[in-house]
Inverse folding.
């Protein structure tokens, strides 16, 4: 009798474990599908900058500007009084510092970073490209979770096997994990991005 009572419990546990494994596999597959031509995620050094968006000890070129970026990866905040400076930062948490332009949009509460740097392609090679990152600060005007944000990289056609020239990137959560990726467009009305086409690489 004890054996008969124990067996259903084992079956239920086994069923639960199988369901958990299926769910984990599905999440993993979704994460793999949400990828693009470039392997990138903001590192801890970059993610914490929005909490104190002022020039650090290694900063140069402090000034006031409305614009940050280059080419397609450009944001115009419309406010020429925003703080702008250049500072080394570990963009992707690899331990390698890169010189980056930084801008704090005080009215929108969004921190921007731009660097023309070496990026790793999803297929293993690397390329030189412009990377623009936006991180939402506390009480940002879009009502986004502080510390979350987005990044885009400006690619030429064929660069990192990109099917079309333009912006590719991801939205990321407050932990820096990419949550939606693909071909992207900048919405110049609110200086945010939208993923217009998911990409699998």
């Amino acid at each position: 009798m004890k054996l008969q009572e124990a067996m259903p419990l084992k079956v239920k546990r086994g069923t639960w474990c199988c369901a958990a494994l299926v769910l984990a596999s599905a999440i993993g597959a979704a994460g793999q599908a949400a990828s693009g031509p470039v392997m990138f995620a903001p590192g801890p050094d970059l993610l914490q900058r929005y909490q104190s968006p002022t020039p650090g000890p290694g900063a140069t070129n402090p000034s006031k500007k409305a614009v940050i970026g280059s080419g397609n990866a450009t944001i115009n905040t419309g406010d020429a009084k925003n703080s702008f400076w250049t500072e080394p930062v570990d963009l992707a948490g690899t331990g390698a510092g890169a010189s980056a332009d930084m801008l704090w949009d005080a009215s929108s509460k969004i921190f921007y970073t731009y660097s023309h740097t070496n990026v790793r392609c999803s297929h293993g090679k690397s390329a030189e490209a412009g990377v623009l990152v936006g991180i939402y600060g506390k009480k940002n005007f879009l009502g986004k979770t502080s510390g979350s944000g987005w990044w885009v990289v400006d690619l030429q056609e064929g660069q990192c096997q990109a099917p079309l020239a333009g912006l590719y990137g991801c939205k990321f959560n407050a932990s820096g994990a990419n949550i939606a990726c693909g071909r992207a467009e900048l919405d110049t009305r609110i200086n945010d991005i939208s993923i217009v086409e998911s990409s699998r690489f």
Notes: The chain is about 20% helix and 40% strand. Residues 37-198 form one domain.
